[in-house]
Amino acid sequence: MAEPFWYKKGRMYCEDVPVADIVRKLGTPLYLYSQSALVHQYRVFDEAFAPVPHLICYAVKANSNLAILSLFRALGSGFDVVSGGELRRAFAAGMDPKRIVFSGVGKTVDEIDLGLCRGILQFNIESAAELMMVAARARALHRIANVALRVNPDVDSHTHPYISTGAREHKFGIAFDQALPIYRRARRSRHLRITGVACHIGSQITVLEPFLSALGRIKEIFRCLRAEGVSVSNLDLGGGLGIVYHDEVPPRPAEYARAIIAAVRDLDCRLLLEPGRAIAGNAGILVTRVLVTKQTGARNFVVVDAGMNDMMRPSLYGAHHRVQAVTLTRRAEWKADLVGPICESGDFLARDRNMTRVRANELLAIMSAGAYGFVLSSNYNTRARAAEVLVRGSRIKVIRRRESFPELVRGEALRPL
């Protein structure tokens, strides 16, 4: 498909709509998503795995707007959720419970009960204690819980430490050498049905080797269970395939799928895949307005109206997002920090970045903001969260209106004791 964000006569478009026209109506900061790009990326991923039984379970945590969830549900996606709130979002978007996988290291009793009562596809179990908790709740509710253990394969995912989850020192999953004993314990419960084996080794992974190393280890568990008479069917590989933010060269979904399919052909299983960033990441941008430019003698600063509360990734782990002008100019470049209005030195969107000189009121686009953008935003400094807008061709739809001050303080007591 054509690029979702492109230029015509120096003006940036989202599909067929000038970005500046949308901003004139709705203001900044503003998250802007291309529906065509979301649909295309989902289909690319789904079609790549067409040769084998599979279910794409979109990772809700990447971008959980209800309109986007409804779009993926209509395309045939399942969902991977990691909280009771995300589970409720899945239901609100009309998702069939039999297409929902519930992951996450800290499930509560209420969250487990909700999943049990609705009959979800699978709980991905993160510890022996959680397994017993799920069994106890299933017994109390006269249900049978479908479970898979999230096995920690202890592989290096070659990504940022904050988004790596597959090594022994991480809080996620069950150690490889403990998995079979815990599966045997699960087999003894009348209220647990073992449906598969799961793993997830991290996010923004740009090489195939970690995926294949992890898969090799969990295949051992899968085969052992089959040999012991456990009729496991689901092999859940999680998500984590990276995208291009700057100069990365990640495998394309088709290349990733070919490698995975070749490695599981002998297993007679159904693959569960949980992409989030790989589908939504490059389908969205964050549009922000320049407030002032500033020179201190030591550094140059471009101060914009979006801050770390709107886009946390750069401050959280130094993530690189390309910055592009919404209207191109022929001015000279300079090296500057792109910073927000938050009262923190860590409030930046880009550092030491070569960019065209800009002026107050001009618009900039923070690229590749479709995943882990709005979902990580907060109201720090009593700042309203941004609006979200979906574009399809020449049509636009506000899928989340900008917060108002009354909404920010709703639920707070006005007077002390």
How would you characterize this protein structure?
This protein has 12 helices and 21 strands. The strands form 3 sheets. Strands 4, 14, 15, 16, 17, 18, 19, 20 and 21 form a 9-stranded mixed β-sheet that branches. It has 417 residues and is an alpha/beta fold. The radius of gyration is 23 Å and the shape is globular. It has helices spanning 19-26, 35-48, 66-75, 84-92, 109-118, 128-140, 176-187, 209-227, 253-264, 277-280, 313-317, 405-409; strands at residues 5-8, 11-14, 17-18, 30-34, 54-59, 78-81, 100-102, 122-125, 145-152, 174-175, 192-198, 234-236, 270-273, 284-295, 300-304, 323-325, 333-339, 348-356, 363-366, 387-392, 395-400. Helix 5 crosses helix 6 (128-140) and helix 7 (176-187) runs parallel beside helix 8.
Brief account:
The protein has twelve helices and 21 strands. By secondary structure, the protein is an alpha/beta fold.
Assign the structural class, choosing from mainly alpha, mainly beta, alpha/beta, alpha+beta, or little secondary structure: alpha/beta
CATH topology of the largest domain: TIM Barrel
**Total number of distinct structural domains:** 2
Tell me the total number of β-strands: 21
CATH level 4 superfamily of the largest domain:
Alanine racemase
- Contiguous low-pLDDT stretches (5 residues minimum) are 162-167
What is the typical, i.e. mean, pLDDT? 94
List the helices and strands and how they pair.
Blueprint: E1 5-8, E2 11-14, E3 17-18, H1 19-26, E4 30-34, H2 35-48, E5 54-59, H3 66-75, E6 78-81, H4 84-92, E7 100-102, H5 109-118, E8 122-125, H6 128-140, E9 145-152, E10 174-175, H7 176-187, E11 192-198, H8 209-227, E12 234-236, H9 253-264, E13 270-273, H10 277-280, E14 284-295, E15 300-304, H11 313-317, E16 323-325, E17 333-339, E18 348-356, E19 363-366, E20 387-392, E21 395-400, H12 405-409
Parallel strand pairs: 4-20, 5-6, 5-13, 6-7, 7-8, 8-9, 9-10, 9-11, 11-12, 12-13, 15-17
Antiparallel strand pairs: 1-2, 2-3, 4-14, 14-15, 14-19, 16-19, 17-18, 20-21
Helix pairs in contact: 2-3, 2-9, 5-6, 7-8, 8-9
